[in-house]
Amino acid sequence: MATMRGGEPIGDEVRDIMSAWAGGRQPSVLFDFNGTLSDDEPDLLCETFRAAFEEGLGWTMTASVYLAEFVGLSDTEIVTKAVHRRGDGTAEQIARVKRLHTALYAKRAECEELVAPDTVQLVEMLAEYHIPMGIVTGAQREQVLAVLGSSPIADLIPVIVADEDVQHGKPDPTGYAMGARALRVPAREVLVFEDSVVGVGAALAAGMRCIAVAGDGPSDGLRAVTTGVIRRLTPRLLDGCFDQR
What residue intervals traverse the membrane (predicted)? Predict the structure, then answer.
């Protein structure tokens, strides 16, 4: 078993997934965004959704409700559920609350570095190996661009499939299928990094390999849907993958 930076183990299952992916003809990567590429799940997202719901709906959402009901859903799905629960249920209110949340999130992203240093190094190393990369997310494009805009990796990930690009969020595989088409690679050549059960389900349903990023939370749910689980993204994942390139 290899080890990640900080002594965290890389299991044999993860190493096998990485090796099989790197041995493909056109290895490519698609990242989930919230909680994976952006270090914002659950704390920052819970805070910004709570603030948007307080202002737009007069509802103070608890962290337990967010964790139990909203994690992994797209922005549209989260806001729609909240509006049907506490608002008037209209499309106008859904759009208004979604705009509130996007503005609150973007403001936080402007003054916080949400892409961890190890994640930056991983993306930079993938770029050095000429690995095509993209993002598939249930967040709004504006939020993604706000985070990337304050990060050195902004120009290294040209493909973004966001909430507004698809009719159905994860676990529907449409977003990941769109990401592969945008990268111009077959789904079987794509490695996905995801942090939610629904996201892993979407990647696997699209015919891609997937490694789950569990963070510091429980990983039992993720281990039930994929054999490859890590704590966080790190350049050490690439050790030995492209020695012959």
Answer: none
Number of domains into which the chain is organized: 2
For range 106-124, the mean pLDDT = 94
9 plus 56 within the same structural domain: no
In the predicted model, what is the mean pLDDT of the chain? 93
pLDDT digits (tens, 9 = 90+) for 190-228: 999 999 999 999 999 999 999 999 988 767 888 889 889
Dihedrals phi, psi of 120, to nearest 5 degrees: -60, -45
Write the DSSP string, 27-79.
-EEEE-TBTTTBS-TTHHHHHHHHHHHHHHHS----HHHIIIIITTS-HHHHH
Secondary structure element (H or E) that encloses residue 229, with its range: strand 229-230
Q: Are 202 and 170 in contact (CB under 8 A)?
A: yes
β partners of residue 136:
161
Residue among 200, 197, 25, 29 nearest 124 (CA): 29
The CATH number that applies at residue 216 is 3.40.50.1000
Residue 36 shares a structural domain with residue 157: yes
Model's pTM, two decimal places?
Answer: 0.92
Helices and strands, number each (H, E), in the chain: 10, 8
